[in-house]
Amino acid sequence: MPRRIPLRSRVLATALGIGLLFLVLRFLPGPPPPAVDPVHPTVRVRLAGWSGRERVPLRIRGRYRILGLEGEEVLWEGAEYRGAIRGGAAGPRLTGLDPLRPAFRIAPEGDAALRLDADWYRGELVVDGRGRRGGELAPRLELYLDLPLEDYVLGVVCGEMAAGAAGAAAALRAQAIAARSWALWELRRGRPFLNDDARDQRFLGVDFETLQAREAVAATEGRVLVWDGELLHAYFHADCGGGTADAWSLEFSREELPPLAGVSDPGCAEDWPWEKEIPAAELDRLARDFELGAWLRRVRASQRDRFGRVLRVLLAGEFATRSLGGEALRRILDLPSTLWLDLEALADGGLRVTGRGRGHGVGLCQEGALRRSRAGASAGEILAHYYPGAEIVLLGEHPGLLRP
Ligand SMILES: [Zn+2]
Description:
The protein is α+β, with helices and mostly antiparallel strands and 404 residues long. The chain has eight helices and 21 strands.
């Protein structure tokens, strides 16, 4: 006869078990990243806009399977699903189906596709509802797509450029090669996923795809930029304002890289300048955050590159002075670029900044690429201008590029 365990011990054991479960869930790492296939890589994209919610409407057109996170086990098979994914303390679930696992993947079969609320997506949906964000067991969802590299690049070309613009064919091809190279550089260094917003590369679903973008991705399939035998971290930005930035000066690279050293782009110098007013209160906060006193006396560009881009600024506060990178200040003050033409102190203590260009300025300039494309340049010529010295190679012929 089994020995009876006293009630108090059982309660204690249960409490310990719950505590242990809480600890395990809290410190559980995110879903393991897909292995990087050297020739046909898969990209995991975090759907930032859909993540963090408790409920996301889901529709699946066609047949689908629900699999364990690694695809190792079939948990459910069906066709034509309409419902929602919900977070829950016991893990996420699909309405109408039994709870599955703390994390699982939904794999549409063949031509099947899935829709989150109003947006259709390609690829497999990874649902992680372990709710460990912020250290709390909140019923929040984290949603990712696992996509073949080329499908991912297509979503980025449509997210990052005017993919339907006239005369954009060569610019879109150049963008596809740059985006592919940038993503693989990030994955190779062990990133578990890429965000679908400006933190990484903006990625859009099927509804935003254009014929031109599909053509650009197909025509450049597997092509990447390489420098000195390594993948190039092919940064790009919206508009350089007259010349691109040196990645090394901006601390975007650990060494001086000739393809990312900055090039002249005179056409962009004629683009309309922007103007932004920074209220006095925001400058005061900056002074306090950097322990310079209660207010800022002066903001001065102390170092510029050959195109006028501000590399360093001097913040003179009530008591102290501090030097800061121009790019860092751009991010703090949410300015369109660091190519500031004028910094004008306003009577109310605020600051008016006039500038040119949009984005960090490193690598390919999208506005300039579009202009060159319309003037008849090829994708190869566009890339050779913005990444001088970089080579375009086929991933399939250089599988070693993806080895860490
Ligand atoms: Zn430009």
